[in-house]
Amino acid sequence: MEKTYSLTAHYDEFQEIKYGGRYSSDVLSNGMTLHLGGSLDRHVARGRGGSGSSSTGRNRDMCNVHGGGGSGAGGLPRWSRREICLLSALVFAAGMCVILGSMLALKYISLEAQQDPLCRHDCQRRRTLLRAARFIQANIDPTIQPCQDFYSFACGGWLRRHGIPEDKLSYGIITAIGEHNEEKLRRLLLEPVRRHGGNSAERKVKEFYRSCVDIREIDALGSLPMSQVIDSCGGWDLVAAAAPAGAGWEDEGAPQRPDFNDMLYRTQGMYSTAVFFSLTVNVDDKNSSRNAIRIDQEGLTLPERSLYLGQDEDSVKILAAYKALMERLLSMLGAHNATLKSKEILQLETRLANITVSESDDQRKDISSMYNRITLRQLQRTAPSLHWKRLLDRIFHDNFSEDEEIVVLATDYMQKVSDIIKTTSKR
Asked: What is the rounded CA–CA span in Å between residue 383 and residue 411?
């Protein structure tokens, strides 16, 4: 049999030759043989007559194509002119899109750099206004006419959605905001420490907070830390049993008398506990450009002075419960004769309550009537039972002059506290 060769032409959607294949077999893929001399012999069964002439024509085209150049002899795909044109147009369009996009992005960045402070301020203000509007809308009661009952109109939504918790006597928006802020602070304090330096305020406050909420460690230590604090202040019995009886911290004859001013420094300066009075640094109420040391009345454990006076049945119950709690705590902290000691402490607090002005009194609402700016020398004459310069020097790590000015908001109270300290039993 004479050796034959076959060429196959493949067409694209434009009816142009896309690529061709060369076969060394004498039989084409459609079952026909092709002689280089030019005639086709069909080796297919009857019924394919219509397809033979078409295949013959396409294969002849393929022979003419490959006869001149032979570039498709390897059977690799060839791009038509239309495909090349379409691909070039597509690449050009994509390049133009990239260029235009880059130009727009650069223009936007330049505009943002020029207007960023103003834009951010305006956007922040807009967000704040929207948040405030949503808050007001949620708290009002639109079913009530404001001209008839403005309080219910303005607060009806809030009252409907919030009841008074069982552990609180009252509840309002200020309390809710405080709780929200406390939750934010709690999450911040529980985050990992990022500044581990010895003087890092972040490390100190986070470790302090975690020590307060570590219930397992607190239970393991028991009363030991508090007992150590009490012992460092002189213990429960401040003078020996052989000390002479009587009153007066200023009594020079009392043996083994502890330094009262040193204990006051420990409570006020080291443990930040207001004993007999509060000592803070605040903005001067009559000169907001400066800060001032401010002294005010303080020292009661119960929230209101009237509770110590037993003026009604509820006050009597609260006072009895407070005394029972005090006895239990004293016993747990190792105090001997806890009943007697709790009675003496309650008597001292009652004396302080009698000289304390209620916060609801009009006198406490008028800062002008309370404000009294005096020098350290004048303060020493007003309350001579305490060594003020020594106390302030140690607390503020400074060396104040006698002319240093201090704001006293309860002058009468400080005079009477000095008398109570002087006349109270040393024990």
From this structure: 9
Say which amino acid occupies 266.
Answer: R
How many C-beta atoms surround the C-beta of residue 347 within 10 A?
11
Percent of residues, the chain, with pLDDT higher than 90: 36
The residue assigned the tokens 């902290």 is 333
Q: Please give the C-alpha separations between residue 401 and each of 19, 254, 286, 376, in angstroms, as whole numbers.
A: 104, 31, 22, 8
Residue 159 sits at φ, ψ, to 5 deg, of -65, -35
Domains in the chain: boundaries: 6-68, 162-213, 233-300+356-423
Distance of CA 155 to the CA centre of its chain: 28
pLDDT tens profile 351-395: 999 999 988 888 888 888 899 999 999 999 999 999 999 999 999
pLDDT in tens, 59-116: 444 444 444 444 444 455 677 888 888 888 889 999 999 998 888 888 777 665 555 5
Rounded to an integer, what distance in angstroms lies between the CA atom of residue 277 and that of residue 87?
88
* Cα–Cα distance measured from residue 403 to residue 98, given in angstroms and rounded to the nearest whole number: 75
Count of beta carbons in the 10 Å neighbourhood of residue 155: 16
Instruction: Let me know: does 176 contact 168? Beta carbons within 8 Å.
Output: no
CATH number for region 233-300+356-423: 1.10.1380.10
- DSSP reduced 3-state for 300: coil
Per-residue pLDDT for 4 more than 70? Answer: no
Does the pLDDT of residue 287 top 60, yes or no?
A: yes
Report which secondary-structure segment, H or E, holds 130.
Answer: helix 81-139
Amino acid, res. 258: P
The tokens for 210 are 């975690």
User: Are 279 and 295 in contact, with CB atoms under 8 Å apart?
Assistant: yes
* Dihedral (Cα; 218, 267, 332, 417), 10-degree rounding: -150
Residue with tokens 């001032």: 292
